[in-house]
Amino acid sequence: MEYLNEVLDKLKAKNVNEPEFLQASYEVLTSLKPVIEKHPEFKKLALLERLTEPERLISFRVPWVDDNGQVQVNRGFRVQFNGAIGPYKGGLRFHPSVNQSIMKFLAFEQCFKNALTGLPIGGGKGGSDFNPKGKSDMEIMRFCQSFMSELYKHIGQDVDVPAGDIGVGGREIGYLFGQYRRLKNAYEAGVLTGKGLEYGGSLARTEATGYGLVYFMREMLKADGKDLKGKTVIISGSGNVAIYACEKATQYGAKVVAMSDSNGCIYDAEGIKLDVIKQIKEVERGRIKDYAQRVPGSVYTESNGEERPIWKIKADIALPCATQNEINLEDAKNLVANGVFAVGEGANMPTNLEAIEYFLSKGVLLAPAKAANAGGVATSALEMSQNSMRYSWTFEEVDAKLDNIMSNIFKACQKSAEEYGLGKNYVAGANIAAFDKLCKAMLAQGII
Asked: Which of 89, 104, 113, 125 is an active site residue?
């Protein structure tokens, strides 16, 4: 289509050094082709151009002092991509890989993910190339305080509400919130989510992304006449999302046999002992290889460069929960050859375009990240609601709301896919359902 190709060409020219953002934009826009063909008026309104250009991109210097008295300097970002539906909402990532391209791709995806939740939240993302690994608590506190000393000018509970992401957990959120409160001289609990229960956090927030992924997978399998019971599952990663996806999948009767981290993966034919994983990762902050030393019969395999051994393990279901582009075409072929019939994306954009196309061509059920991992941001929005009411729901109440939200997200993806004759292509279904809501909100508010 002429208009679509024009937009893609402009994007490539304007964002030539941003491969992750271009990848995310291409994946979304090409799947919207049948919608765009129905609405030629979008070209005159430059709707796609507005949709792919952030409303605001903030980049700033973050100076801080390490334990040796040496001044360090990092770069901070906040991308406020689209606020048509509500306050910008999205996590903060502290990791050496953070750059403008990754921030923009994550913020762009967040717009669609947040729209799918049905809750009044826009899309944003932020972070820094600061690496929290190996840093002392005091170093992390000083960094967070410096980071927030600039960020606080651009956020607020009705403006932009950050949360955690890779490298930003409860400890970091606490330091960030403390500095925000000090600078603002006000207790605005709704300005950050993922807070501790003692100061405005929500029960079930820790579990939400992993649980939500499995709730979506349950609905997708059910629509195909299948369920999780008795299925063999492999999960990449061993952080928050992976741990609680493992927990919920096991509760549904699945057997998780493999998990991983950036160094390698462990395989346990008897089923992963989640209490051991939690001890290693949540308490000791150790490496996954320690599991093999503690659990007889389990096997650890080191990663070799770009090769990911976890995707060579025989299974029925794969849940990539580590990071972007962790499944390439070769990995996808290995997964299909080893019997995987369903993939649920717990990480953001973990499957590259070639692998997505391969999965769909082979009839693999693919739960796209912007739908399947929306449980975390959905529960963050529920945390915002509780903060506004100055009230707390029980774990069971939040979990029930999360389950309902994820079920509704699947139904929206399914409905859009069916409406445009796309069968079980839930990747396109998710993009179309989210685009429909974003598009209506943007058009209603005029050219802004």
From this structure: 125
Phi, then psi, of 149 in degrees rounded to 5: -60, -25
Q: Tell me the per-residue pLDDT of 312-329, one tens digit each, with 9 for 90 and over.
A: 999 999 999 998 899 999
**Residues 6 or more apart from 253 whose CB is under 8 A from it?**
228, 229, 230
Sign of CA dihedral 345, 348, 351, 354: positive
Residues 267 and 260: their CA atoms lie apart, in Å, by 9
Give the C-alpha separation, 61 to 76, whole Å: 6
Active site residue 125: yes
Helix (H, G, I), strand (E, B) or coil at 366: strand
pTM of the model: 0.92
pLDDT digits (tens, 9 = 90+) for 124-165: 999 999 999 999 999 999 999 999 999 999 999 999 999 999
Q: Residue 132: which of 123, 119, 141 has the closest Cα? A: 141
Q: Are 300 and 292 in contact (CB under 8 A)?
A: yes
257-293: per-residue pLDDT in tens?
A: 999 999 999 999 999 999 999 999 989 989 999 999 9
Average pLDDT over residues 409-413: 98
How far is 344 from 329, CA to CA, in rounded Å?
16
Question: Cα separation of 235 and 247, whole Å?
Answer: 11
Q: What are phi and psi of 84, to 5 degrees?
A: -70, -30
Q: What is the C-alpha to C-alpha distance for residues 164 and 161, in angstroms, rounded to an integer?
A: 10
According to DSSP, the residues that pair with 89 across neighbouring strands are: 123, 161
Q: Give the burial class of 357: count Cβ atoms within 10 A of its Cβ; 0-12 exposed, 13-18 middle, 19 or more buried.
A: middle
Q: What share of the chain has pLDDT > 70, as a percent?
A: 100
Q: Which residue has the tokens 């070769």?
A: 330
DSSP state of 199: G
